[in-house]
Amino acid sequence: MRIQSIKIEKLFNFFDHKIDLNLKEGITIIHSPNGYGKTIILKMLQSLFNQSFYIFFKIPFKIFSVTFDNGSQIEISKNNNKISQKYFNKQLNKNYDYEFEENNSEEFIEKIAPRRIRESFPYLERISPTLWIDVRTNIEYSTQEVLLKLEDEEPPGLFNDLKMKNIFSNIEFANIQRVYFIQDQRLLQKNTPRYRRHSEEPLWIESVLQNSKEISEIIKNTEREYAKLSQELDTNFVSRILENSIRKEKFTYQNIELLLKNLQDKITKLSKFGLYDIEVHNKTLKKFPSSLVNVGDSDLKVIFMSIEDQMKKLEVFDNLLKRIELFTEILNVKKLKFKKIQIDKNKGYIFKTDDEKDILASDLSSGEQNELILNYELIFKIQPNTLVLIDEPEISLHVEWQHDFLNDLEKIIQLQKIDFLIATHSPQIIGEKWNLTVRLEEPKRKSKK
Predict the structure, then answer these.
(1) Model confidence over 420-439: pLDDT tens digits?
(2) For 1-101+164-177+385-449, which CATH class?
């Protein structure tokens, strides 16, 4: 179930917007002057799919609805500050209605929210009964602004008082498209140790360092899968040789040489990123006869199955290899100047200058770090069948990088099978792809008689 369209009526008591998503291309760009509701629409969509409703209480609107590509629909409506949620299942031709439980949102703001904010967002300090300051940026917010701005960073439990029954627990939503909001502040991320109360670990860590550790762990987990599959195949190799009824023409020396070439090509790619030790492969090759022309059928069969097994083992790296190839390609081709990113299975990613001197990831410019973190999220963190929301990506992108932005997303779409909904003011982001845009219009004014 992919999101096909989004509709909102009387946003700010004024705007009616309908956004039809470009499902074929996978990229939809909304643009408009400031104040038309681009960012709010993205946040409302995210809040709906998180089933967290604070934003719907605070923002004036009448109806917010999402239609899926199978004809099903979710609708949030507001009447006298009462929120209701409806779901129509197209296949079953059945409606489900959920009413929001009684709740005093003002009491939540005055009594519950300050305590929850302190617990959940330690970088915010309260400087007056209704005012907070972000110590990272020195920007001040009212309590209501904090809740609206930071709802997309919602940790578990913060908005429990403003949640209704989660409709996504229904079986019909098993294949529903996920929604993922890209944070505008990406350089730091919250550290959540297992035992927070007595932990001496910092509350906030640099995203570039954390992501590097994650890549290393992803590689090591893949290696464990490889080792497990290797053990399974090696354990029953002899029995499979005896039982296998491979047709003789399949393990001819010509087919074996072709299979061996494919194996060599794959190992060369894997070794480029430190995913496989090519020396181990070379030692294995030395065990094979230099020429297969005079090798008997039974030996050819053993060689064929041995190479075929190794290809099967290495398939566990296929998805990871594709992601690493795209990740390094996007960054090395145009994003990183006078330096390059490399993958190390123990360190994650590392950086070197053109003359092979090491650079710390934390020493990259803020723009380079933002590019690194954004592409890491899109390629390594986001799951297939996700609608990714990006608000004003141009804020953290150099003008030259803005020109390449959509081209990079198209490559990521091919790999990840995800969709994008982007809000922007930048003509550089859009480039020549105005066919992907939806302009939010102002209401038609009634003519005076």
Answers:
(1) 999 999 999 999 999 999 99
(2) alpha beta
